[in-house]
Amino acid sequence: MKVAIGADHGGVVLKEILAGFLSGRGYEVLDLGAYDTQPSDYPDFSKAVAEAILQGRAERGILVCGSGVGASIAANKFPGIRAALCHDTFSAHQGVEDDDMNVLSLGGRVIGPELAKELVLRFLSAKFSGAERHTRRLNKVRDIERLYEKAEG
Ligand code: RB5
């Protein structure tokens, strides 16, 4: 599976650990920066990861900022991106199974690397169930996106 990963300065250390970990597990990792701890802006990395998914260069994305909040807020501005901040393993897989989450956001200043490794594995190995009730709810989410795309057009 191709996985896009990005982080600002608050998440870059954890991002580096996760990129290496996932490569070692056989994932094809598209590392979209940052590549150092110089202050940077989380929306830039949310955009890079979101576009990689929307353009088909990656199937899933992982974002890391200090808290995981800003990166997920920015990623969710892209229609078709379903990002969530998950620091528990249940949400990391259930968010995919029920909600078709395609970006996992993490807080590099909140959780440690071992929990983060578990979270990314649970996220990446999960699959959307396709159950009728979940598909219906996702379609309503898409309807909301379309409604406001038109309102701004
Ligand atoms: C950067 O200081 C910090 O605000 C950012 O990494 C993130 O936590 C935002 O949500």
Structure keywords:
153 residues, alpha/beta, Ribose 5-phosphate Isomerase B, Chain: A, five-stranded parallel β-sheet, 6 helices, globular, binds D-ribose
Report what the structure shows.
- There is one protein chain.
- The protein is 51% helix and 16% strand.
- The protein has 153 residues and is of the alpha/beta class.
- It has a single domain (2-152), classed as 3-Layer(aba) Sandwich (Ribose 5-phosphate Isomerase B, Chain: A), CATH 3.40.1400.10.
- Strand 1, helix 1 and strand 2 (28-31) form a beta-alpha-beta unit.
- It is globular and about 40 Å long.
- 37% of the residues are buried.
- The mean pLDDT is 97.
State the major sheet. 5 strands, parallel
Bound molecules: D-ribose
Mean pLDDT: 97
- The strand line-up of the biggest sheet is 2-1-3-5-4
CATH architecture call: 3-Layer(aba) Sandwich
Strand-residue fraction? 15-25%
Structural class: alpha/beta
Query: H/E element string?
Result: EHEHEHEHEHH
CATH top level assignment = Alpha Beta
CATH topology: Ribose 5-phosphate Isomerase B, Chain: A
Oligomer: single chain
Number of helices: 6
Give the total of beta strands: 5
Distance between the termini: 35 Å
Shape: globular
Q: For this structure, what is the CATH homologous superfamily?
A: Sugar-phosphate isomerase, RpiB/LacA/LacB
The Rg value, from CA coordinates, equals 15 Å
Domain tally: 1
Low-pLDDT sequence parts: none
Percentage of residues in helical conformation: 40-55%
Describe the secondary structure blueprint for this structure.
Blueprint: E1 2-7, H1 12-24, E2 28-31, H2 42-54, E3 60-65, H3 69-75, E4 83-85, H4 89-99, E5 103-107, H5 113-125, H6 132-152
Helix pairs in contact: 1-5, 2-3, 4-5
The chain binds D-ribose.
